[in-house]
Amino acid sequence: MADVLVRRTARFPDVQVVRGSFEEFRPAQRFGLLFSAEAWHWTAPETRWSLAADALADGATLALFWNTERIAEPSLRTGMLQTVAEHAPSVVINDEPLTAEHVWHRWPGDELSGVAAFESPVSHHYRRQWSMAKTDYLDLTRTRSQFRMLPPSVRRELLAALTSLFDDDVPLVMHTTLLLARRRRP
User: Fold this and answer.
1) Which of 72, 102, 112, 157 has its CA 20 to 30 A from that of 183?
2) CA separation for the pair 25, 55 (Å, rounded)
3) Contact 67, 178 (CB under 8 A)
4) Which residues pair with residue 124 across a beta bridge?
């Protein structure tokens, strides 16, 4: 992904791409925004919040967002759930959208709301409906850690069964959750 970012920002001389983990990064300056798109769960639990606070200037914003896609057609979703249960019963499909009422009671909102270095937490919720080509949907499925962790033979069988289940397009509803909080001023 860093290679893609380097290519896409090549025309901007002030953009510097730093390769390494969040835990290894020690900024020379504090920033006005730190955002994580679909990746905050990969940061180390014991240091994620303190490192975020250390990287941000006083009053600066932490933005965490992620998407939850759900098959929009109920009978097709039921078929997908049955197929997954049959081939990979250990896989849990968590495609329920996170609502404003629940966002601060589930991770990461429950943790963020208790971090003293941050204040004024707020959430925003967005919904979009569209169809994704079956091949793109299956490619997305292959990237999910719960599928990547399956034994290769189980993964192949599951993906073959899903390939048979879907038509050319998969109708989806995408729910995007955005959490914002400000770095507390001293």
Assistant:
1) 102
2) 9
3) no
4) 178
Q: What residues contact 131, with CB distance under 8 A and at least 6 apart?
A: 169, 170, 171, 172
What is the number of other CB atoms lying within 10 angstroms of the CB of residue 92? Answer: 8
Strands 169-183 and 31-37: unpaired
106 φ, ψ to 5°?
A: -125, 155
Strands 118-133 and 56-71: unpaired
Q: What are the phi and psi torsion angles at 53 (to 5°)?
A: -65, -40
Among 76, 109, 111, 121, residue whose Cα is nearest residue 95: 76
Report which residue type is found at 14.
D
What are the structure tokens assigned to 7, written together?
Answer: 């290519």
Single pTM value for the model:
0.84
